[in-house]
C-alpha cells in the first residue's frame, strides 16, 4: 500500500540536497569549532558561513543569530532570556492562548517564578484583537510573545500591527515563526519591529535538532545554558556543525523556492477541499479563511471521533494528525480550538490537521481526500 504523508507541520522529510551537503561534516570536517588547530578552524569557517546565510535571509547581522537545538529551545531562550535580563524593569509578559506549548509552558514556569503573564484571547477565527493587546500593555510589560502562524490551524496573526504597537510601547516583540518561516517572507530589517524570532530546521526539510533564534542587537538577553563561550556567550555547548550546515542549506533553499511552495501548497489545499465538496462531505474549516499559512488545513468533521479517524486513516496509509498533543494513544483536546470555540465545543473532538509539503503531488492529495471522505462517511454514521 502506498502511504501518503500529510503531516508536514509535525515534521518534514529531509531534502536530499541538504543531506548531501551535510555528509562531509560528519567524517571529514569534524573539528570542534572552538579548537585552535586547523581542524577546528575549518569547522569554524563553515559555521560562520552558515550563520551568514541565515542572517542574509532575515536581513540581519550574523551576530544577531543564535544557533539552537530547534524551535523549542529558541522559544525558551527568547522568553526566559528576556524575562531574566529585564526583570528589574518589569515582570509582566503578554502571550496568546493559542501559542505552541514551547511558549505556553515557558510562560507558566515564569509565573511560578513570580512573573505575571497575560494570555490574550482569540476570536473564533483564531485571530487576536489588537485593542485587547493595547489595553493589556502596562508600564511593567517587558515582552510580548505572539506567534507568526499557528501550528494547528495555520492562522497568521497581524504581525506588522503588533510590532508597531509594541515598538511604540517599548516591550520586546518575540514571534515564534517555526511554522511560518517556510512559506512567509520574513525580513526583520523591514518595518515588522520584531525583536526576537524563532525558527526550526526540521520544518524546512532540514535536520531535526537544529534551529535558531534571531535576537536584535538592541535586546537584552540572559543566557540559559552555561559551560562555554559559544554563540557569543549566549548559548553554551559545542555547536552541531553538520546540523547547522544543513539548517543553512535549508534556509537557502527556502529562500529560493518559498513563493513557489506557498502557491503550490495553497493549490493542494484547494484540491483537497474540492474533493471534499465533490464527495458531499459534511465539514467546515477551523481558522481564518484568508489569514492562514498555505500548508496547513484544519478540518472539522461533525460526528466523527478524532481517535477513530486518525487510526482508520493510518490503516489506509494516510498520515494526518490532530495537531494537538497525544498521550498514551489518546488525543488531548486542542487548547487552540478550545481558545477559539470554548471548552465544550464539538470541534475539539472531531477535527484533524492536514499539512502539505515536499513530495506531495496533486494526485496523492486527491487520493488521500477520497480516502478521508470514505472513512469520514463511515465513521459519521
Ligand atoms: C509553532 C511551533 N513552535 C515551536 C515548535 C517546536 O519546534 P522544535 O520541534 O524544533 O523544537 C513547533 C513544532 O512543532 C511549532 O510548530
From TrEMBL:
Species per Swiss-Prot/TrEMBL record: Bacillus pumilus (Bacillus mesentericus)
GO molecular function, one term: metal ion binding
Keyword Iron-sulfur: yes
Pfam families xref list: Aminotran_5
Residue ranges of domain Aminotransferase class V in the record: 4-367
Entry-linked InterPro entries: Aminotrans_V_dom, Aminotrans_V_PyrdxlP_BS, Cysteine_dSase, PyrdxlP-dep_Trfase, PyrdxlP-dep_Trfase_major, PyrdxlP-dep_Trfase_small
Residue ranges the record marks as coiled coil: none
Similarity comment: family membership: Belongs to the class-V pyridoxal-phosphate-dependent aminotransferase family. NifS/IscS subfamily.
Enzyme Commission code: 2.8.1.7
Identification of the protein by name: cysteine desulfurase
Catalytic activity, as annotated: (sulfur carrier)-H + L-cysteine = (sulfur carrier)-SH + L-alanine
UniProt KW keywords: Iron, Iron-sulfur, Metal-binding, Pyridoxal phosphate, Transferase
Entries under SUPFAM superfamilies matching the protein: PLP-dependent transferases
Entry-linked PANTHER family: CYSTEINE DESULFURASE, CYSTEINE DESULFURYLASE FAMILY MEMBER
Gene3D superfamilies: 1.10.260.50, Aspartate Aminotransferase, domain 1, Type I PLP-dependent aspartate aminotransferase-like (Major domain)
Domain of life according to the entry: Bacteria
Swiss-Prot/TrEMBL cofactor(s): pyridoxal 5'-phosphate
Amino acid at each position: 500500500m502506498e502511504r501518503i504523508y500529510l503531516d508536514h507541520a509535525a515534521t518534514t522529510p529531509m531534502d536530499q540536497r541538504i543531506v548531501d551537503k551535510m555528509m562531509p561534516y560528519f567524517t571529514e570536517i569534524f573539528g570542534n569549532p572552538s579548537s585552535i588547530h586547523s581542524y577546528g578552524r575549518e569547522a569554524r569557517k563553515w559555521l560562520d558561513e552558515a550563520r551568514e546565510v541565515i542572517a542574509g535571509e532575515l536581513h540581519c547581522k550574523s551576530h544577531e543569530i543564535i544557533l539552537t537545538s530547534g524551535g523549542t529551545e529558541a522559544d525558551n531562550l527568547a522568553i526566559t532570556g528576556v524575562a531574566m535580563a529585564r526583570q528589574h524593569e518589569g515582570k509582566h509578559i503578554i502571550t496568546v492562548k493559542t501559542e505552541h506549548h514551547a511558549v505556553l509552558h515557558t510562560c507558566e514556569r515564569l509565573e511560578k517564578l513570580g512573573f505575571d503573564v497575560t494570555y490574550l484571547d482569540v476570536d473564533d477565527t483564531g485571530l487576536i484583537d489588537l485593542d485587547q493587546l493595547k489595553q493589556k500593555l502596562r508600564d511593567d510589560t517587558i515582552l510580548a510573545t505572539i506567534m507568526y502562524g499557528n501550528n494547528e490551524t495555520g492562522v497568521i496573526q497581524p504581525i506588522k500591527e503588533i510590532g508597531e504597537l509594541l515598538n511604540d510601547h517599548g516591550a520586546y516583540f518575540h514571534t515564534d515563526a517555526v511554522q511560518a518561516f517556510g512559506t512567509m517572507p520574513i525580513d526583520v530589517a523591514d518595518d515588522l519591529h520584531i525583536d526576537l524570532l524563532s525558527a526550526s530546521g526540521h520544518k524546512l526539510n532540514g535536520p531535526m535538532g537544529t534551529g535558531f533564534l534571531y535576537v536584535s542587537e538592541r535586546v537584552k538577553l540572559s543566557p540559559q545554558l552555561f559551560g562555554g563561550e559559544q554563540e557569543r556567550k549566549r548559548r553554551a555547548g559545542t555547536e552541531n556543525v553538520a546540523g547547522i550546515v544543513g539548517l543553512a542549506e535549508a534556509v537557502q533553499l527556502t529562500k529560493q523556492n518559498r513563493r513557489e511552495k506557498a502557491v503550490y501548497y495553497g493549490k493542494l489545499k484547494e484540491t483537497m477541499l474540492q474533493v471534499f465538496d465533490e464527495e458531499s462531505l459534511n465539514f467546515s474549516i477551523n481558522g481564518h479563511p484568508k489569514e492562514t499559512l498555505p500548508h496547513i488545513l484544519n478540518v472539522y468533521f461533525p460526528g466523527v471521533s478524532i481517535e477513530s479517524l486518525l487510526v482508520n486513516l493510518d490503516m489506509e496509509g494516510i498520515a494526518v494528525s490532530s495537531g494537538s498533543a497525544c498521550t498514551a494513544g489518546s488525543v488531548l483536546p486542542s487548547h487552540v480550538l478550545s481558545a477559539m470555540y470554548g471548552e465544550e465545543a464539538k470541534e475539539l473532538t472531531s477535527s484533524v490537521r492536514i499539512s502539505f509539503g515536499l513530495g506531495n503531488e496533486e494526485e496523492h492529495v486527491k487520493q488521500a481526500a477520497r480516502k478521508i471522505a470514505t472513512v469520514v462517511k463511515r465513521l459519521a454514521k
